[in-house]
Amino acid sequence: MTPLPLSRREALRRILAASALASVLDIQAFAADDLRIIGDDPDLLKKEIPWARVLTDEEKRTVTAFADLLIPADEYGPAASAVGVTDFIDEWVSAPYDQQKGDLVTFRKGLTWLNDEAKRRTGKLFAESTLAEQTALLEDTLKEGTEARKAGYSFFKLFRDRACGGYFSTAEGSKALGYQGNIPLISFAGPPPEALRHVGLA
Hints:
Blueprint: H1 8-25, H2 32-37, H3 57-70, H4 85-94, H5 98-122, H6 131-140, H7 147-167, H8 171-177, H9 193-198
Helix pairs in contact: 1-4, 3-4, 4-7, 5-7
């Protein structure tokens, strides 16, 4: 699948949105230090973006395949690449801050390992492997005691968290979660009885 391209401004907006979403959902999409370093910089009102994106075309193909394996299209929403997760991740790891620089090192090592392991198993790059072959490789990173887990588990966790941060900061991702905010209402009947009972008010 060809990933949806994101503008620099939209990718950065979603990094900030994903940071806020992570705190609401109590997930580890971003560490506490991440929130501190991206609060006021860059200035989204300016046209200039102070860094270039660094992922290569091959790395982005691997990112796209991996993200779509983790978040495929289903009845809840589109695949990760269809909402720009590839560019979101590229923007994140390109930023010139300590956290992102560290993530870039982990990503590059992980993406290289993913392709090397796919070639060892199938003779093909990860993005060129079948869905079953990709799934088998990733499942091995989750099995205790496997060599794949030792080599790729930290990368898997980081990639999963960043991909989810990018996906669930979109309108499509919010819908997949069942989030119903930011919708204009003609009237509001108040919270349902179940919610009132839950907080001891009914």
